[in-house]
Amino acid sequence: EASEQFGNRGAKQAQQILEQAAAMFAGGSLTDEDKIAFMDEFQCLYLDSKRRAKKFTPKKYLKNQEEK
User: Fold this and answer.
1) Integer Cα distance of 42 and 7 in angstroms
2) What range defines the domain where residue 23 resides?
3) pLDDT tens column, 21-60
4) How many domains is the chain partitioned into structurally?
5) pLDDT at residue number 67
6) Cβ pair 59, 14 in contact under 8 A
7) Which of 11, 21, 34, 68 has the fewest CB atoms within 10 Å, i.e. is most exposed?
């Protein structure tokens, strides 16, 4: 989903965040359902923050993104 909306950079950032979050669970006592719920919520928060940040991106940069 991140790659469709935010390109390769957004997908790489999302993957990096998920890997770091998964490392937090190593050796923990959370159930698999709790881990999945956390990851899903974290991904939603990340994508929402990217959408909100896009509002403040200067138009000259958005124009270049559309041409690529």
Assistant:
1) 19
2) 2-67
3) 777 777 777 788 888 888 888 888 888 888 888 787 777 7
4) 1
5) 47
6) no
7) 68
Overall pTM surpassing 0.70 (yes/no) = no
Q: How far apart are CA 26 and CA 10, in angstroms?
A: 25
Structure tokens at 39: 């990851």
The CA-based dihedral angle spanning residues 15, 21, 26, 32, taken in that order and rounded to the nearest 10 degrees: -90
Residue 9 near residue 17, CB atoms below 8 Å = no
Instruction: Give, in degrees to the nearest 5, the angle at Cα 21 between 15 and 25.
Output: 135
- Please check the confidence at residue 6 and state whether its pLDDT lies above 80: no
Q: Cα–Cα distance between 38 and 26 in angstroms, integer?
A: 14
